[in-house]
Amino acid sequence: MSDKKRLFLIDAYALIFRGYYALIKNPRINSKGMDTSAIMGFMNSFLDVIKRERPDHLAVCFDKGGSDARNEMYEAYKANRDETPNAIRLAIPYIEKILTAMHIPIMVKEGFEADDVIGTLAKKAEKEGYQTFMVTPDKDFAQLVSENIFMYRPVFGGGYETWGIPEVRKKFEVTDPLQVIDFLGMMGDSSDNIPGLPGVGEKTAKKFLAEFGSMEGLLENTDKLKGKMKEKVEANKELGLLSKKLATIMLDVPVEFNAKDFEMSEPDVTEVTKIFEELEFRRLTDNFVKAFSIEAMAAPGTSHQPPSTNKGSNNSLPLGEMSKGQRGQKTISSSAGQGQFSLFGGDSEPSVATEVYSSRKTIETTEHFYQTVQAGIGRKLFLQNLLKQTSVCFDTETTGLNPLTAELVGIAFSWEAGKGFYLPCPDDREETQHLLEQLRPFFEDEKIEKIGQNLKYDIKVLAKYNVVVKGKLFDTMLAHYLINPDMRHNMDVLAETYLNYTPVSITELIGKKGKNQLSMRDIPIEKQTEYAVEDADVTLQLKEHFQNELGEANIQKLFDEIEIPLLRVLADMELEGINLDEAFLKKLSVELDKDILNLEKHIYEAAGEEFNIASPKQLGEILFDKLKLIDKPKKTKTGQYSTAEDVLSYLAKDHKIIRDVLEYRGLAKLKSTYVDALPEQVESSTNRVHTDYMQTVAATGRLSSNNPNLQNIPIRTERGREVRKAFIPRDKDYVLLAADYSQIELRIIAALSEEENMIEAFKNGEDIHSSTAAKVFNISLEEVTREQRSNAKTVNFGIIYGVSAFGLSNQTDLSRSESKELIDTYYKTYPKLRNYMSEQVDFARDNGYVQTVLGRRRYLKDINGRNQVVRGAAERNAVNAPIQGSAADIIKIAMINIHKILSEGSFKTKMLLQVHDELVFDVYKPELEAMKTMIKSEMEKAYIMKVPLDVEIGVGDNWLEAH
DNA sequence: GCGACCTCTTA
DNA sequence: GTAAGAGGTCGCC
């Protein structure tokens, strides 16, 4: 890098938009319901640039009031851009506030776009001998690139690329970056509403530039063109010249480049931290500190003093002193000078940095009394005291995350905020068992309420020691899931959000996961105590917080009668596991391998070379660049060719290679995801597969399953279905029983909407899709064709998801207008269904949430949003969440009741799996008839509505047969 | 080794 | 159009 001074000019809006849309699928929402994606996205990029580049000079440039000049030239200019999303408009003042607090120069010029401001400044700085980096993803800026002016472009997937003259030449196939203007003028830009020349796209524009060098060159030489293109270009000369003007970044904005104004200076750390905390940003504080500490190094004289700390001042407790000694060295308050805090050189420790600047409380700034209880008289007294309590929070510490194999390391207890006890477990398993026998009276006391975060885990761990946790339970994770299902529920987040407290981080304690990660057992007992008791203490405090909120949102009943009892049910199912026929899968794997190799051979032959078929990138290049199977291949959002199923299926009938690729894909997926992966997941200690049900992940109230996911085992295709044969009963005395709710979601929507036409059909036991077809097409049930039924079925499902004519036509052979007609007739047939749907949307608009039959809520923050797309999604959620969620509620009730009957009746039959509308059981053969009746009846009467629920029972020697 | 992206599996 | 989890590739650190 040359020793020239460097200026970074940041295109604020471009980075804000990019940040916002990058997170659109998974927007960051804080506890106040504010969408902070745009702020977060922008700040991440911004701090990243500073951290990477340590610029001497920089400015962030905003637009204000749009470009007067361009609006004058062309009134449609940027007119039909989508309206700025609300979240972005709200973000701007925050971003300005943060930048101001950071003392970052902000450039705005009323009546000019940021492009023009940046362009003008870049050129002026160049004259002063600066190297300028324009930080923007917007390719329009390429026209400004020169020997000393560069584009600094964030790329998807992280990192940046610098575009100098060679890069621009290559990207745009031009000799001079100025030709980028001609390029943009020719092909136009829909997002900026630059019209461009009709019929000219990227390819043609490049061709024209290569031949004529510029827009003017092209327009003077239209006689060299032929056919349609000639006519079009000649007819649009004016438009071409205008487009070029619109695409030209102006270099005469009345702004001055005074180097002094662009110098980096010391930020107001307290203020920045305050704003971040208000927004509930956590990791960003790390990044901020990191980015600016480096700058402190580069510019001696600036130093960053932390806000006043009272660290350690009131720590008179023994444990506090221990930790003070451990941590003192890392904190700035104990270091002599500013150099100490430099993170220069790469050995940075972000978590430490956060601590220094955060005003959040930590174990070091909070008075606490955490005590280690060793064997002997102390423990005896502790146990006596423990049994006197009515409500106790506990937390187990183990050697790992798998409760089947993890060993207890210690147990923490707390029943008063700020206080708690830790009982370390001996390394020896038998001695630990002995300790647990002493604790058994506590755990099995029905009268003592047990509080915890993710109690399912602790209950499973203790079950392995034959200890049953009895009595009332309060799980803070479940409570928060009901309070706000769209947020995350891990304890660190909850503590920071609700208690303004940062708990000791587990990674700080045992290291990042991977080769060097320690086990809790390797940590000194004093440290274990701090960490474990803090968890119990924090959880106890969270409980106080959440208890009130449950009442306020009317979800107490749902919590007490569904989620809490279900936790025990799930723990039992997970501990039970399911038997897997490994030999069968092994055989299947060999067969698949043979077929895959064969397909590979055919594909390589057709392609004329060997390549990685599993790489969408390589596959796309072979199919569309080399074999040119199609003129205009569809691209993904990252600019790769799309090789997705629907794209390829469309081509399949004409090309054998495509059919082979699709089959290859199917088989490879099957093999890697299921046939080969499942045997790996067999738990050696039980010889069974134990999935982990997540009770707080799905925003609608459904469960999810992982390690392995047993809720997506193939069934649709013949080859895939084979995998189900590998799920088998415990032994020859057992069979598998599968019980499925038939059309539960449609029944729910029929019942909730009180749509008589549909209710009657269900009551009469009609095939609902045929019945719908008969009504919609106005024919008798007997006259319904397969195609009509199939279309009716698609609409029925579509309704549940909030269908559009567009979506429907994509899924059927129907055209867009036929789809629209079908939907219209459908609504006429079932008028109350439509009413119900709009009622849900209205309810959400008025209340901000929708709810299920049991009152489970889902908050829809975008329901009154201005952005069409985002609001549309919220409206579909308003329709779908109560349906999907009510179905989830109902099967949960059934599971709880069935589990109760099975355990109280000491049946040998066990419930093993839940797949949203299906339950799978390992049934002891002598109990089979009783089970069939009991399960069907319990599931059907779990929740009584105006539509009867119907359950289909299947029995077999494997999961497939049971269907 | 980690994360983004793409693709594919289920209800 | 709703709700999930997982595997392979590829670029980044």
Descriptive report:
Among the domains are: 6-172 and 250-260, 3-Layer(aba) Sandwich (Rossmann fold); 342-552, Ribonuclease H-like superfamily/Ribonuclease H (Nucleotidyltransferase, domain 5, 2-Layer Sandwich), CATH 3.30.420; 593-689, Taq DNA Polymerase, Chain T, domain 4 (Up-down Bundle); 747-886, Orthogonal Bundle (DNA polymerase, domain 1). With 963 residues, the chain is an alpha/beta fold. A hairpin with a 5-residue loop joins β5 (149-154) and β6 (160-163). It contains 38 helices and 24 strands. The model is unreliable at 294-357 (pLDDT under 50). The strands form 6 sheets. It has a 6-stranded mixed β-sheet, sandwiched between helices. Strands 7-10-9-8-11-12 form a 6-stranded mixed β-sheet, sandwiched between helices. Strands 14-15-13-18 form a 4-stranded antiparallel β-sheet. The chain binds a DNA duplex (11 and 13 nucleotides) through α25, α27, β17, α33 and α34.
